[in-house]
Amino acid sequence: MSLALFRRVHHLSTTAWSRAAQLPRVAEKKFYAIKGDVLEQVLPAFCAVAGEDGVSLGTAVREQHGRDESVHSCRPPDVVVWPRSVEEVSALAKICHRHRLPIVPFGTGTGLEGGVGAVKGGVCFSLRKMDRVLDLHQEDFDVTVEPGVTRKALNSYLRDTGLWFPVDPGADASLCGMAATSASGTNAVRYGTMRENVLNLEVVLADGTVLHTAGEGRRPRKTSAGYNLTNLFVGSEGTLGVLTKATLRLYGIPELMVSTVCSFPSVQAAVDSTVQVLQAGIPIARIEFLDDVMMDACNRFSGLSYAVSPTLFLEFHGSEKSLEEQVTITEDITRGNGGSDFSWAQDAETRGQLWKARHDAWYAALALRPGCKAYATDVCVPISLLPHIIVETKKDLTENRLTGPIAGHVGDGNFHCLMVLDPDDPDEVQRVHQFTERLARRALSLNGTCTGEHGVGLGKRALLQEEVGPLAIDVMRRLKATLDPENLMNPGKIL
Ligand SMILES: Cc1cc2nc3c(=O)[nH]c(=O)nc-3n(C[C@H](O)[C@H](O)[C@H](O)COP(=O)(O)OP(=O)(O)OC[C@H]3O[C@@H](n4cnc5c(N)ncnc54)[C@H](O)[C@@H]3O)c2cc1C
């Protein structure tokens, strides 16, 4: 079909058309990874499935879908499609499969490891239009959502039900993006990560077939039926299939919540308190650590006046009676470790103000050096080893003249250095890169992981090999080859 006929038949919009008309020429300049003639063939098919407004070749659109919030450079896909249903995802995947085109799923683009970059070109499947909450079972504490529903949208939907979904990465990410990266956040110490909270997934595989990882429609709270396919796809970062539905656990909104902030004379004292609180069996809902540099940045950014020292932000959920007990024991433990300057908050507004410093940490770090970019490292170690690794890491930062305030989900042994760097300074970029590799290897030497929650993406593939060893990598490769023999699903990531 000629491009002229193609345009007439498919009523391409002027923008889409003008881009399509340029394809062969642009392809020669290696702007498009897909050859112009292939694109010419697949575009009508994409439009027939997703509608004309469900397909875009626009440069700005492709660039917007070729980057996340990381410092990895933008790798735009050749085309962006917006399917509206699992049937459309499947039909589009079949077209890609027939033409051997890479598929890169896109949630909200808040990832921190370059996961949405189309390193081999291909087709970005943006799941934004699939944003319905499908099945809520209040009495069973579960819900099924389409991939574009974000965590905040789900919690707004649940507002009047007395239920909530607690996994809370700092950004308002899509729930299937969160499943794809095995995300967690401040509530993980009590409610778990995405791994513990996904009951079933609907997945479109590379050849367009539709899989239900726990069986269609099933939503038991527990199962010992066969291999855990659900958890194979949690954390698969779009490399095994497109997640088109997730069935998630829900929790009752606690009767009461109380938060406090408390400062410590040393990192060791803050972490000792954390370990002792957990050992005492306190069902702490959140226990977050900020180092002195981070506290200083937060004070400046949010106009606060917290002590500039290692600090814990804590939150307790429960009934009045249980809170009384939790708070008394925790206060005893923290005072015993030199904790002071307690600020307490119970009503929602004051708690919101108190947590503001923690929630704004990313932006507070960025504000330390206006015009710079931030990169969040993400390691996780057995909790007792946290003081050791944090002290070593702070020394490393100082010796290498780097800005990297520390914030951590300390109850899980997980922490981030929010590296603030000038991306146009090659020397600094190199020093940050070397620092992050050293930090990850330090975590590995302490039997930890190179990523607690952000995923492997582009940047941590070599570290993953060091972490799990050649045999585990080989098993992963074979699993990938079984599910995606043509290596079409988000190629170049994880492995
Ligand atoms: C300020 C800030 C704070 C953050 N704090 C945290 C935190 O505390 N904890 C944490 O875990 N993360 C955190 N993140 C990182 C980010 O929010 C998470 O990684 C999130 O899970 C990404 O979801 P997304 O929808 O934006 O996915 P995207 O960025 O769109 O994609 C991420 C990866 O998942 C794949 N993917 C997306 N959707 C699908 C799908 N439907 N099917 C298959 N694969 C898919 C993509 O291909 C890509 O590989 C933070 C990010 C920012 C910017």
TrEMBL record:
Pfam family, one: FAD_binding_4
Residue ranges of domain FAD-binding PCMH-type in the record: 72-253
Coiled-coil intervals: none
Catalysis: reaction(s): (R)-lactate + 2 Fe(III)-[cytochrome c] = 2 Fe(II)-[cytochrome c] + pyruvate + 2 H(+)
UniProt GO cellular component terms: mitochondrion
Subunit structure: Interacts with CSRP3.
Protein name stated in the entry: Probable D-lactate dehydrogenase, mitochondrial
